[in-house]
Specification:
elongated, 10 helices, 211 residues, 2 domains, mainly alpha, Endonuclease Iii, domain 2, Endonuclease III, domain 1, single chain
């Protein structure tokens, strides 16, 4: 895909959604961090249902640590891998208190040192909580990037590096949100809604179904 097509796609997505944001519910960087840890292999809807109840009871490193693993689990038991996630969240809370003055760190290295936080989670937090122009690549973005031709790659890291390199600076901060929402609601995995797609004229997917 050439630069003009790529810019046209981002410009159209920006026109339709000038201020995109995550669909996860949060009011602080810490709440976002916990939600993103929970969202691995889970839907935002299922995470929001859990955190809407959890955050009424505990929404700081100290208060969640005070719950402990045993009392945290019932709040997140509807989410996949909740046993491991509960352990990681409690460990992360302790590290935030002991090493970061209870604040979510603002560097990738520090974020990735937290239990349950990988590159994708760190990118989401850096972008959404702190406004960094990072692009987290989940299954939706991986699919959209390859299918449309915006940034092809065989691994999420390869796609991420190409997106960061090829996305014009004016679009970089919001690219993550535009692409994930496009993949979630239009460029779906099983059957992309090509006939309803606002960027179909620039998309290089060879098996478009426009009817």
């Amino acid at each position: 895909m050439n630069a003009d097509k790529r810019s046209a796609i981002y410009a159209k997505l920006r026109e339709l959604d000038p201020s995109p944001d995550t669909e996860l519910h949060y009011v602080s960087p810490f709440e976002l961090l916990v939600a993103v840890i929970l969202s691995a292999q889970a839907t935002d809807i299922s995470v929001n249902k859990a955190t809407d109840h959890l955050y009424l009871v505990a929404n700081t490193p100290e208060s969640i640590l005070a719950l402990g693993v045993k009392r945290l689990k019932p709040y997140i038991k509807t989410i996949g891998l909740f046993n491991n996630k509960a352990e990681n969240i409690i460990k992360t809370c302790k590290l935030l208190i002991d090493e970061h003055n209870s604040q979510v760190p603002t560097t990738r290295e520090a974020l990735e040192s937290l239990p349950g936080v990988g590159r994708k989670t760190a990118n989401v937090v850096l972008n959404t909580a702190f406004g960094e122009p990072t692009i987290a690549v989940d299954t939706h973005i991986f699919r959209v990037s390859n299918r449309t031709g915006i940034a092809k790659g065989k691994t999420p890291l390869e796609v991420e590096k190409r997106l960061v390199r090829l996305t014009p600076d004016e679009f970089k901060k919001d690219a993550h949100h535009w692409l994930i929402l496009h993949g979630r609601y239009v460029c779906k995995a099983r059957k992309p809604l090509c006939g309803e797609c606002p960027i179909v004229e620039w998309c290089e997917y060879k098996q478009k179904e426009l009817s």
